[in-house]
């Protein structure tokens, strides 16, 4: 939500397009919120967000994909612990 207008933002205000390139950067990368540091947490979340890093095998074997994701993100966030 914009603190100025109270309306839902379409994009994060810290997302900046690099001049003359088709690339974007986070303007506060080293101080970004934990939600950003920990993303993505689950394969389900990646599917919902249509993450381009998903591979076809991740959809066939989502539990294995989750274990792989947890290993990849081990240094960035606490592991996802599914509810019983
Ligand atoms: S990492 Fe987080 S703070 Fe940075 S641009 Fe993306 S959504 Fe915004």
Description:
The chain is mostly helical. The chain has a domain at 15-72. The protein contains four helices and two strands. It has helices at 34-38, 43-48, 56-60, 62-72, and strands at residues 15-17, 24-26. The chain has a two-stranded antiparallel ribbon. Strand 1 (15-17) and strand 2 (24-26) form a beta hairpin. The chain is globular and about 40 Å long. The model has no long low-confidence stretch (mean pLDDT 90). Bound molecules: iron/sulfur cluster (SF4). Iron/sulfur cluster is lined by residues 12, 14-15, 26, 28, 32, 36.
Describe the protein's topology.
Layout (H helix, E strand, L loop, with lengths): L14 E3 L6 E3 L7 H5 L4 H6 L7 H5 L1 H11 L12
Antiparallel strand pairs: 1-2
This protein binds iron/sulfur cluster (SF4).
Keywords:
32% helix; two-stranded antiparallel ribbon; mainly alpha; 84 residues; binds iron/sulfur cluster; globular; 2 strands; 4 helices
């Amino acid at each position: 939500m914009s603190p100025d207008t109270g309306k839902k933002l379409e994009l994060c205000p810290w997302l900046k397009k690099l001049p003359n390139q088709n690339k974007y950067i986070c303007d506060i990368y080293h101080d970004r919120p934990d939600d950003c540091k920990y993303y993505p947490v689950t394969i389900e979340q990646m599917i919902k967000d249509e993450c381009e890093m998903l591979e076809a095998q991740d959809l066939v074997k989502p539990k294995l994909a989750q274990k792989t994701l947890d290993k990849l993100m081990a240094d960035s966030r606490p592991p996802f612990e599914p509810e019983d």
